[in-house]
Structures are given as C-alpha cells and as structure tokens.
Amino acid sequence: MNNFAQAVWVETLKFRRSKMSFLSLLGFLLIPLMGGFFMIILKDPEFARRVGLISAKAQLLGGSADWPTFFNLLAQAVAIGGFILFGFVGSWVFGREYSDRTVKDLLALPTPRSAIVLAKFVVVMGWSAVVTAVIYFVSLGVGTAVGLPAVPSTVFWHDTMIIGISAGLTISLVTPIAFFASVGHGYLPPLGAAVLIIFLAQIIVIAGYGEYFPWSIPALYSQGTPVGPTSFLIVVMTGLVGVVATFLWWELADQTH
After folding, report:
1. For the whole model, what pTM was predicted?
2. What is the CA 34 to chain-centroid distance, rounded?
3. Which of 112, 166, 189, 243 has its CA 20 to 30 A from that of 37?
4. CA angle 170, 175, 176 (to 5 degrees)
5. CA–CA separation, 217 vs 200, rounded Å?
6. Distance CA 26, CA 30 (A)
7. pLDDT tens, 167-195?
C-alpha cells in the first residue's frame, strides 16, 4: 500500500509538471465559454440575425436561453468532447514512458507493476473528474453572468445529475485508451483509436444501434435519450475490460522491446 501511495504521488507530480495538465484544462474551459456565447445569441435574436452563420449554428441547439438548454449543451460536450480530452490525458499518462524511452527505468523501481498501472489510472480518472467539476462551476458563473432565468431547484439538480453521470460514463470508457497507449508504446496509436471510436459511434447511432455501442451511450444519455440498464452494464464492462487488459499487458508483456 505504501508503494501504491508513492506511485500515485509520483504520477501526480509528473502530470502536474507537464503541459498536459494545463492544456487539457484550457481545452475544457472552452466548453462553458462557447456555451455562454450561444446563450447570448439565443437571448438576442436581432444580434443573431446580424451574425448570420453563427446564428444558424446556435439554433441547432434548440431550446432557448435558459439553464436547461445550457446544461444540456454542457452534458453533451462532456460526453463527446470529454472523451477526446480525457483520451489525450490517458494517452499521455500511459504513453509517456514509452515515447521518452524511460519505461525500463520505471519498471526497474522496487514498485509492483500493478501499483504503477493503478496509480496511472487514479491520475487519469482523478484529473478527468477534477476538470469536469471545474468547468461545471465555471459554467455556473458564465450562466449567471449571461443572466439566464432562474429555474426550480429540482430542475437544476436533475440537470446537474445528468452532467455528472455523463462525465462518469465517459471517464469509464477511457480505460481502453490506456491499453492502446501501452500496446502501441506511445501517444499516436491511442489518439488514432479515440478518433476512430468517435467516428464509429456516430455511424452506429445513425444506424440505430447506439445503445449497444459503449462509446455512443454517454452522448445518448446526455441528450435525454432513454438508456436502459443493459447500456449502463455495457459501459461498466467495457471500462473493466480496459482496466484488466492494461494490467495484464504491463504484467505479462515483454517491455524491453
């Protein structure tokens, strides 16, 4: 347990000192800012007509300039954009040692490989949760600054719960990215896999089978589409498979090549 705590501290320190922590947070902060911009457009139809193309894009959101619409936008952004950004974090945390050719030095330490892998997962999931919380509170400030009308507390907390569950589902699905980073020995294979997954998710939703494809489920849920227990189970099992596969790779694969 002591080795695990030390591994978490080391992985956290490496991530905090890297540019990835800042860049991932900066990228995610664009979500509430863009959401606030769309709310301003929806609040002022005359301004929307003047900006033309931007008005058309804002109208694609549906709804009006209110908290439910704003939170719905935030939930969808977390479910879709979050997978890409969380995937970047997972790719860096698990692929860095391979790209820098320091994985042999890492494995030479008197720390079990399982503790190292678990520590990396803690950092990826912990940071993803922190970033989600940050943009949520920033969104509260943006929505207040824009002047969105008040809603009943039940509606407010219901939408907040949807954002939280959407984030949890998305974070769970990042674990296979860690496996691809480990097998691919770097950043590019997992990033390519993430882009391919997003593409497939869109196609499968159009085909009508999105509730059975794990990476389509968070987006469907965030949009208010009914999602059954089977879909949630698929997400959980996919996340567990990613964790187990990554553990087995680090334990059993030849890391000298």
Report:
1. 0.87
2. 17
3. 166
4. 110
5. 12
6. 7
7. 999 999 999 999 999 888 888 888 889 88
